[in-house]
Every structure is written in C-alpha cells, then in structure tokens.
Amino acid sequence: MMRRRKAHWYSSFALALCWLHALQGVANGGEQLQQLSRQVAAAQQVFWARFYQERTGTFADYLSSYAPGKELAHLPTAEEVSRQYPNPCGYGTGMEDGLILGGAMLSLLVDQYAVTQDRSLHDQAKSVFEGIQKCATVHGVPGFLARNVCAEDQRSVYINSSRDQYTHAVHGLWRYYRSPLADESTKQSIANQLAAVADRMIEFVRPENGYDFCRADGERCPLGICRMWNVQPHEAARLPMIYAAAWDATGDETYRALWRKYLPDAVVQSANPDRNMPAYAMLQMQCSLELLYELEPDENQKQKLLQIMQSVAELADRRAIRISGQLASKSDEEMSMLGPDWRAAKVWINQGGYLNPQWGPYREIWSLTREVGEAALVPLMVKGSDLTDAQRDRLQTLIAETNYLHRSSCGIVYHLAAYWKALFRAQVSE
Fold first, then answer.
1. What angle do CA 332, 16, 21 make, to 5 degrees?
2. What SS3 class is residue 130?
3. Average pLDDT of the residues in 100-111
4. Torsions phi, psi of 173, nearest 5?
5. Does pTM surpass 0.70?
6. 234 in Cβ contact with 193 (< 8 Å)
7. Which end of the chain is more exposed for a tag (fewer CB within 10 A), N or C?
8. Three-state SS for 300?
9. Distance CA 398, CA 94 (A)
C-alpha cells in the first residue's frame, strides 16, 4: 500500500511544479523546485508510513523509535485504555490528538487535490475519513468524538475528548464534504456524523451543564476542555461553527437557527483574542472562522469575520518569526530526538485529578516542529491571501532544511498543510 501511495505522490508533484514557481518566486529555480518537491514527498511518505495506523485509520502523536515496525511501540495497550490509564484523555501516550490529525489531514488532502487533481487522493481521503468515523462510532455514543482508537483491539477509546479535537474534526469533515474527493455515499455519512455532533451539543451544551458536551460516560469534564460556550475569545466561534457545518450538510433548519443564534456574540467575542495564544489555538480559531466566513450570508458579518481572520493571521505571522528563530538555534541532532515511553516518565502532574506523564525535554522538540507549521498555515487560510516574500522564504527554508526521515513529531503534517495551501493560493491568484 505504501509503495503505491509513494508513486502517486511523485505524480502529484509533477502536476504541481507550475505552481511551485509562484511559491519559489524565481525564474531559474528548477533545481530548488525539485529539491522542495522531494522534501515534501519524503515528509508525506514518513507521515503515512510511520504515524498512520492502518488498523484504525488514525494517526499517532509521536514516534518512540525509527526502527521499522517499532515506531509506535509506546502506544497504550487495550488493557491500559480499558482502565483509562494513565488518564481519561490519554494525555502523554501518543493517542491524545488522533482526531486533530485526521481533520488536519483531510483539509490538507482537499488542498492537494485542488492543485494536482491526483485521483489517488480519493482513496487516501476515504481512509482518513473512515478513521474519524471509527472515532465517532466505535464506542456507541452518538455525537461523541473519541481522540483516537486503540490499534490493538480497534475498539478501546479514552472517554474524555475536547473542543480542540471537535474543531479540527468538524472543519476537516466539512471541507471534505464540500470537495470533489467525497462521493455521494461518503457525503451522506459526513452529513449524518455532523448532525450527530450537533445533536450532542443541543443535548448537553446548556447553562445548567456548564455548556459542557461531556465525556463519553455522560460525566462533566473536570478540565474545562469540553466547554463550548462562555469560553475564551479564540474558542468562542467553535459552537456556531458546529451548527453551521451541520446545517450546510443536512439543510436542517434546527441547526441553522442555532448557528444564527450564537454567531453574533461569537463574532464580538472573537474580535479580542489573547495576542500571546499558542499557534495551535490560532489555527483552531482560524478553522472555526474560515467555516463561518464561507457560509455567512450577511455581508456585514462576513466582513467582520474576514477582519478577525486577518488579525489572527498577523498574530500568527509574528509568532512564526519567533518560532523560526528558536528552531534555527537547534541542531539536527536535537530535532531528531525521539519521544519517550510515557510509562517510564520521571515526572507526573495531577491535572483535575488526571495523572499526566511529562515528556521532559522532548516536549519542546515536539512543540517546535508543530508550531512552526501551524504558524505558517494560519495566514494562508485567509481568502485572497498570498505569501509575502518573507513568508515564502521561511516556508521554503523550513521544508528544505528539515530532515523528515528523522523527525518524530506529528507536527510535520502542518508543514505539509502549509505547503499545499500555499500552492493552492498561488493557483487561485494565477
């Protein structure tokens, strides 16, 4: 399977070379263009071959080995997950962000297909969708989106999700739904799933419940990460985003009414986000705003959403400069660090009653890899945006100088997402 995918990737890059000239910004950069495309091919091969779990259709957060077949040996066993060890979120285990990664990958594939028209991407997108579908259904709780599914038994899940997981999953499903990659049967499945998520919000996200969509067992989340309203500014658009996506896919007026109910306050709250929020928060905020912007029928509200997205893009660009500087100070040896076996963690932190194993020095390496890609991607999500010379140079340098064969952080998916989004923007502007 992986050999077949690799061959398709190279055909994709051949189709994309004309747009690479727009990204490169030079007339005689053929050799550099080929190098860039080889680097992206290597990154995509690594991500599919090492982070993807074919048994579940989901992705893992990090690698603990570069040896073939042992990359994900640290992942929790079915027995560990069944007793919610080490915590009900799966924090620190490599199983905590599978849904985020699935949503990000679906969005990436939509952009890649728009640039290349490579039909092999239909199968890749379908496999990612099926992984998200498994996270949504294997536990039998309608509308609950589990973070990941244990590959050992293809059934066990951690019972505490988060609004971050829902944000990326809904955004990715919605973009996939609206793309030519999804056939009619898949679109119906997506519509059903988005409706189930919206129905869970209707049932649980109420004042008397603290606006919490709750864990799979129906209990309130003690960490506050499942609260969908009365949240921070960068999170305010998440709830109307879910209702808007469900309405767009189903046409159900119930979801439309809720979208219109929550939108005005969400727009006001979103206008003043924390200027020091991390890149992942900027990206998730942009995901919710992008969906709302595309569906907004009122031109006044649409303009307000666009202005907020532009402001978030400016914040992300400044953060990208800072993170790129931090990354430049690290050696390749440091950036090649592998993730730990969490069971042997020397430090454990109690968060709301959840014991969370700490990764030590690896946390910085994992985060830098991720944040530099997220920060590059956020400005490109603004409709009509184009790369500045500085942004183009940073993205080229990032991709050209990253040793993807020795990177253990799932954050490389955001390098790829920024690359394909940049090519898509160049294509549209042409």
1. 75
2. helix
3. 98
4. -60, -40
5. yes
6. no
7. C
8. helix
9. 24
